[in-house]
Design a protein that fits this description.
There is one protein chain. With 307 residues, the chain is of the alpha/beta class. The chain folds into two domains: 7-173, Rossmann fold; 191-297, K homology (KH) domain (GMP Synthetase, Chain A, domain 3, 2-Layer Sandwich), CATH 3.30.300.20. The protein is built from ten helices and nine strands. It has a six-stranded mixed beta sheet, sandwiched between helices. Strands 7-8-9 form a three-stranded mixed beta sheet. The chain is globular, with a radius of gyration of 20 Å.
Amino acid sequence: MEDNNFKSGFVALAGKPNVGKSTLINALMGQKVVIVSEKPQTTRNRINCILTEANYQIVFVDTPGIHKPLKKIGEYMVNIAVNALKGVDVILFMIDATEGVRNSDLRVAEIVNKSKIPTILLINKIDLLKNRSKVKEMAEIIKGECSNIVETLEISAVTGENLSKLKECIINLLPTGPQYYPEDMITDKPSRFIIAELIREKIFLLTKEEIPHSSGVVVEELKERENGMLYVRAEIYVEKKSQKPIIIGKNGSMIKNIGQQARKDIEELFEKKVFLDLYVKVRDKWRDDKNILNNIMEYKMEEVKDK
């Protein structure tokens, strides 16, 4: 028998790169599900993150930041972000309080407005402001471009300010409905995708300049060995020969650091020991190669192989 009091639905996040969408999702989920870094365009794909409680299930749809693309991978990311807004129940439109309203925010506002979906405007990073006097002005500018905004909140995804109120607002906007995913499921992405993302996060955190955006990660092998250890073989793609030694580092120091930090997160996720085998390969212009993009960004659902 269906519970008429149970609420469920899909909630998409929209905003330009680096406004804090992934940080917000992790904060609302109460655990790390999606990767974050201070560099823009960290998120490259749509990821559904599932929060289930006794009387509701919220499926947060994390998307790449909407930006003006320069390469095919950029076009791919923007298309993912725009398409993710279709058919959802609520949109969370985020802007950065420290930057004010920019043209990039107005481009997002135009897309969100066309969706006609109930939208909560989130003015994030409010904790970094010494003077909040201009926040209302920011909100009015966005609301002038977006007629479907039903609520405006000043929040901090880092400190948690107003996140409880945000959750209440979301639940109030959700329809009564079924539980779409099992209660112990936190994401709809396969293990290989999540592991590749964790490795890529460490590249973003530890390397500089063009390296993070020029790199991609593919998990080529994932299996559990007889001793219970999880074996992972992953390839890190870079675009130029000069980038390979940077990823490897002096005497292998960089790739060792990437591996150690990624392995820690993977072990916490799978709750078992992990042997992480990393390789670096040069793939010229891989960000414009449809075949490689499909391999990196469209993992098929696949469980860990037995031994």
